[in-house]
Design brief:
Blueprint: H1 3-19, H2 24-27, H3 38-57, H4 64-71, H5 92-111, H6 115-119, E1 121-123, E2 129-131, H7 132-155
Antiparallel strand pairs: 1-2
């Protein structure tokens, strides 16, 4: 397994710990009006992982749900578009489903990338041209960034109990 995959697996474990006991109400709580909810952050994490699985491994959405998760890579996070999934999808079952789909799609690529995947030129979600190696490094730490945000939200005095 690649060193990058070790980091990715660790960040995904920490993310799972941050959300393991959250209710649907907690997943949908917002720090302030217009802020992202935890559910939306989780869809974004899954979307970014699917973005790299798509660009480096050829993963394709199997249905509208998976296509919507992929859109969470940028929509409402890196652009001004609205969040692409309906509120009805912002529940623990669907969020966990999206994270599992993304994990399954990215795991074989990040664990044993081919030389071609590592060298492949790709435009990152933030718009800069990078290669697959740099993309895998970025996605390996991405969940950690949002895990920190989730823990901060959970510590807020008004976070639902």
């Amino acid at each position: 397994m690649s060193e990058v995959a070790v980091v990715w697996r660790f960040t995904r474990r920490r993310l799972a710990q941050a959300i393991e006991d959250l209710s649907d109400a907690q997943l949908n709580w917002r720090l302030f009006d217009g802020a992202h909810s935890i559910a939306e952050y989780l869809y974004h994490v899954a979307g970014v992982e699917l973005y790299w699985a798509h660009h480096l491994g050829g993963w394709q959405p199997a249905d509208d749900f998976e296509a919507g998760v992929l859109q969470c890579t940028c929509d409402s996070f890196l652009n001004e578009k609205p969040f692409p999934l309906p509120q009805s999808c912002c529940n623990a079952t669907d969020v966990r489903r999206a994270l599992q789909i993304a994990y399954n799609a990215l795991a074989p690529i990040i664990e044993s990338p081919t030389p071609e995947q590592l060298a492949k030129p790709v435009r990152s979600p933030i718009g800069d041209p990078i290669d697959g190696r740099e993309g895998l490094i970025r996605v390996a730490q991405h969940a950690a960034y949002h895990t920190g945000q989730i823990w901060l939200m959970r510590m807020h005095p008004q976070f639902p109990i």
